[in-house]
Specification:
The complex is a heterotrimer of chains A (356), B (144) and C (363).
Chain A lengths: L1 H13 L4 H7 L3 H28 L15 H11 L10 H20 L15 H10 L1 H11 L3 H32 L4 H7 L15 H14 L11 H4 L9 H26 L15 H29 L5 H32 L1
Helix pairs in contact in A: 3-4, 3-12, 3-13, 4-12, 5-6, 5-7, 5-12, 7-8, 8-9, 8-10, 8-14, 10-12, 10-14, 12-13
Chain B lengths: L2 H7 L3 E4 L2 E4 L3 H11 L4 E11 L2 E10 L4 E9 L2 E3 L8 H12 L2 E3 L38
Parallel strand pairs in B: 2-5, 6-7
Antiparallel strand pairs in B: 1-2, 3-4, 4-5
Chain C lengths: L5 E5 L11 E7 L2 E8 L7 H7 L2 H4 L11 H16 L5 H29 L4 H21 L8 E2 L2 E2 L7 H22 L2 H7 L7 H6 L5 H4 L29 H28 L18 E9 L2 E9 L7 E5 L1 H12 L5 H10 L4 H5 L1
Helix pairs in contact in C: 3-4, 4-5, 4-10, 4-12, 5-6, 6-10
The chains are: A mainly alpha (356), B alpha/beta (144), C alpha+beta (363).
């Protein structure tokens, strides 16, 4: 970030603008960048999901709007923007409107603390892994708000299931993150990335000592994202649309946006913990100029996240939904013990490394 | 089934092909038939408006083991005994007959309009049903 | 301590009720305490219509009773008239009818597999089955000019001869492989097994009491298939699929196995049709068709259970009374019993496994 900061200040001084102005405005830039990038990313993700689902089910997917259907999601987003915001009778209007706002903010903040490359970390605190975990679990509150405020039984069921699901899957995630923190001796996402650096590229990644943790993490993240096969909160065959049944127009679009950007953020989070984050898989970078390397690093991170998202979509196309009982049982009786075991393995590896 | 045995118990009946025509004691007859023979499925209940305010109910019983059909027919006027306690499948059938023929089944706890709207006047499959707009429920003024 | 229960209105416009079924559920948490089906949203008065129409006028409408298996209901009505007029069907007509009925059954079961998996939350099989169903519907369209409402069977025979059988040959050569594919993606899937094995157990006694027929009954271990005593299927060699598991999984597996059996029957019919000469049939003149006074009754093994047609004729050109029995009508009633004590998401799966289709229920 310092690099960017100096670049910005240098740019300002060249145009005779006082440094104080730069100090104040600099911290707004990342959020503008995130906001702009987010929309693009979500549009691409939605299109990718629809195209891939089409591919998996031997259809074409969207193919009419724009070349190869690339404008389809733009058209959909535009439609959602133009739609009337219906507030049903007898909802708790304040909470009903608050929920989409609350769901949006933590997601925004979570994207702010991800290290996209060695220099592009907008907010870098010492323990931002924990901060990320909190932010990633935060949307559940607004989902519950939405379900409660909607005054709809289906929404309430969706919200109820959502809470139960996140509560039970948050624990395995925390234990796995703990084991990574032990291996990396750091609670900082950049620190964890550095700890995975090795001359041989992928050899240093934590996925190898922690393959068990990776699998647990991936499953739990699927559950936390309400993705298939854990999409019970919005199981359309039972609960119509779950917590966002009553939402329409822009409010619905925000839920949708959050869902996909959380998917993206969580995929990046897993990549950082297990797949070396922005590090190149070859151990050395393709570009030599330090400025271009930053972009290459971001590219590697996005590629890794993209592969994970592809797997998520693949799973969605393949698996049926779990039953709610099995879902909780699976977390408490399988994932939780395994994640503790994974923590032990990580500690043993760390101790072994220290002894050698 | 053993016709002579049946006739001995219920003397008020006659046999017409595979159809037994009884005059009364519907519940008892069905109970007797299911208890003493292997008829274990009530395939359907057919209702016919035979005029004169009377409706013929035909109970189509089937024995899965013997692969044998049995039709029991009874003429009723407005009311009939329900056999829901013997065959649960009679529940929708009797309900349908109530809806379309207006036969009240005594012992059926949940008789309601099934196909027709709640406030529909008349029973469409009766021969005296007037298919006329003035009979429609939303045209109440013409239909005092 | 007082506990309150929650009344949930599942339907009539709900994604998983396959039409306009309304289930009034009483829930405690997600557990179902009672279920009351409410039907009649799709009532078209098929029985009343029959009393106002001649047999010829009525024939095209009966396909609409079950839009996924229209042939079966035309066959029922044709059979009534043939029985009344004492017409014996020539072998070639029988072969054509059996072939079309079984293809129709495959199409219906295929759609069910997709819809059932959709209820369980898997999206892909739905599209896969539509791909195969499309082949069958293409053939039907080529033959009858219609994809769903065929109006192809006429009193005493069929509307036109089949002079192209390539489509059918393709279907029966491809379909078994595709069914293997479905089994690969579905049958051994652990999540699918968790959601179906042991869920919605239907004991034979309950099935009898609720007049459940067809695949649902055979999946409960009862060997009852009307095709065995059906004159139309005389000379065809097929096996009745009977499974002992009694649960949702058995109902799924029974349908999958029955599709394979249907392919076998279609193959036999196809072999016959290839050898058979030109169609020679003695059609009943449908104009001024008057059935002799009396009661007529016909039954057929439709995809969703036993379907029956009862006609009372007073010797006129319109039926005095016509009554349909459809399989789904009784399956809906079974929900009262089967869903009690289940959880909401299992309930949807169990209701889906019974293969309820609403036009058939409401008639």
């Amino acid at each position: 970030m310092n690099y960017l900061y100096f670049l910005y200040i240098e740019f300002l001084t060249r145009h005779n603008i006082p440094k104080l102005f730069g100090d104040i405005t600099f911290y707004f830039i990342p959020f503008c960048v995130i906001a702009a990038a987010l929309l693009v990313v979500v549009l691409i993700l939605v299109l990718a999901e629809r195209k891939l689902l089409g591919f998996f089910t031997q259809r074409k997917g969207p193919n009419r709007v724009g070349f190869w259907g690339i404008m389809q999601t733009v058209a959909d987003a535009f439609k959602l923007l133009c739609k009337e915001n219906i507030t049903p009778d007898k909802v708790d209007v304040f909470l009903f409107n608050l929920a989409p706002i609350l769901v949006f903010i933590p997601m925004f903040a979570a994207l702010g603390i991800i290290p996209y490359s060695a220099e592009f970390t907008f907010v870098n605190t010492q323990t931002n892994v924990i901060l990320y975990l909190i932010l990633a679990a935060f949307p559940i509150l607004s989902i519950f708000l939405a379900g409660w405020a909607s005054n709809n039984k289906y929404s309430l069921f969706g919200a109820m299931r959502s809470i139960a699901q996140v509560l039970s899957y948050e624990l395995p995630i925390t234990f796995v993150v703990l084991s990574i923190a032990v291996l990396a001796s750091s609670l900082n996402l950049t620190g964890i990335t550095y700890a995975q650096f090795s001359k041989w590229g992928i050899a240093g990644w934590f996925i190898f000592p922690c393959i068990l943790g990776f699998i647990i993490m991936f499953i739990s993240i699927l559950a936390e994202l309400n993705r298939c096969p854990f999409d019970l909160p919005e199981a359309e065959s039972e609960l119509v649309c779950g917590y966002n049944t009553e939402y329409s127009g822009m409010r619905f679009a925000i839920f949708y946006l959050t869902e996909y950007s959380m998917m993206f953020a969580n995929a990046m989070f897993i990549s950082i913990l297990f797949l070396g984050g922005y590090l190149s898989p070859f151990g050395k970078y393709l570009f030599s100029s330090s400025f271009l390397i930053y972009f290459e690093q971001a590219f590697w991170l996005f590629l890794k996240a993209g592969i994970l998202i592809f797997i998520m979509i693949w799973i969605r196309a393949t698996l049926p939904r779990l039953a709610s009982f099995d879902l909780l049982k699976f977390s408490w009786t399988v994932l939780l013990p395994l994640s503790i075991l994974n923590l032990f393995i990580a500690v043993l590896i760390k101790m072994g490394g220290a002894l050698c | 089934m053993n016709w002579s045995e049946f006739e001995r118990v219920f003397n008020d009946c006659e046999l017409d092909g595979s159809k037994i025509i009884i005059k009364s004691k519907l519940h008892e007859v069905i109970k007797f038939v299911t208890d003493n023979y292997t008829y274990n499925v009530l395939k359907e209940i057919i209702a016919n408006d035979i005029g004169g305010g009377e409706t013929e109910l035909i109970y189509h019983l089937y024995s899965v083991d013997d692969e044998e059909d049995l039709f029991i027919s009874i003429n009723v006027a407005g009311e009939a005994e329900s056999i829901v306690d013997i065959f649960k499948s009679a529940l929708p059938d009797e309900n349908e007959i109530y809806d379309l023929f207006g036969i009240k089944f005594i012992g059926h706890e949940d008789l309601k309009r099934l196909y027709m709207p709640e406030d529909w006047k008349g029973f469409p499959l009766r021969k005296d049903y007037v298919q006329d707009d003035t009979r429609l429920a939303w045209n109440d003024d013409n239909n005092a | 301590m007082t506990t309150t229960t929650l009344k949930l209105n599942l339907g009539p416009q709900h994604p998983s009720t396959h039409g306009v079924l309304r289930l009034l559920l009483e829930l405690k948490g997600e557990k179902i305490l009672s279920c009351e089906p409410d039907i009649g949203y799709l009532h078209r008065g098929m029985e009343k219509m029959a009393e106002k129409m001649t047999y010829l006028q009525y024939l095209p409408t009966v396909d609409r009773i079950d839009y996924l298996a229209g042939f079966f209901y035309s066959e029922l009505l044709c059979r009534i008239v043939e029985k009344a007029m004492e017409v014996e069907l020539p072998d070639k007509v029988r072969a054509i009818r059996v072939m079309l009925l079984e293809l129709n059954r495959i199409a219906s079961h295929l759609l069910w597999v997709g819809a059932f998996l959709m209820d369980l939350g898997a999206v892909s099989p739905f599209f896969y089955v539509f791909r195969e169903r499309e082949m069958i519907l293409r053939f039907f369209e080529k033959l009858t000019g219609q994809r769903m409402m065929y109006n192809y069977f006429v009193f005493g025979g069929v509307r036109r001869d089949i002079d192209f059988l390539d489509g059918v040959e393709e279907i029966i050569s491809i379909l078994p492989k595709k069914i293997d594919d479905y089994e690969k993606i579905i049958t051994e899937n652990p999540i699918f097994l968790r959601r179906t094995v042991g869920k919605g157990i239907l004991e034979p006694e309950i099935a009898f009491n609720y007049a459940i027929t067809g695949v649902n009954l055979r999946a409960s271990g009862v060997d009852y298939d009307y095709r065995n005593s059906d004159d139309l299927y005389r000379g065809f060699d097929f096996r009745t699929v009977v499974l002992e598991e009694k649960d949702s999984w058995a109902r799924y597996k029974a349908r999958i196995s029955e599709m394979r059996e249907c392919v076998n029957i279609v193959g036999q019919a196809l072999d016959y049709l290839k050898r058979a000469g030109v169609l020679e049939q003695r059609l009943i003149n449908p104009l001024n068709l008057k059935l002799p006074a009396g009661d007529y009754y016909s039954e057929i093994e439709a995809p969703r259970g036993l379907a029956c047609c009862y006609v009372r004729s007073d010797g006129g050109e319109k039926p005095y009374r016509l009554k349909w029995r459809t399989g789904s009508y009784y399956s809906v009633n079974l929900l009262r019993k089967l869903l009690v004590g289940e959880y909401l998401n299992d309930a949807v799966a169990i209701a889906g496994s019974l293969d309820i289709i609403l036009p058939e229920v409401d008639k």
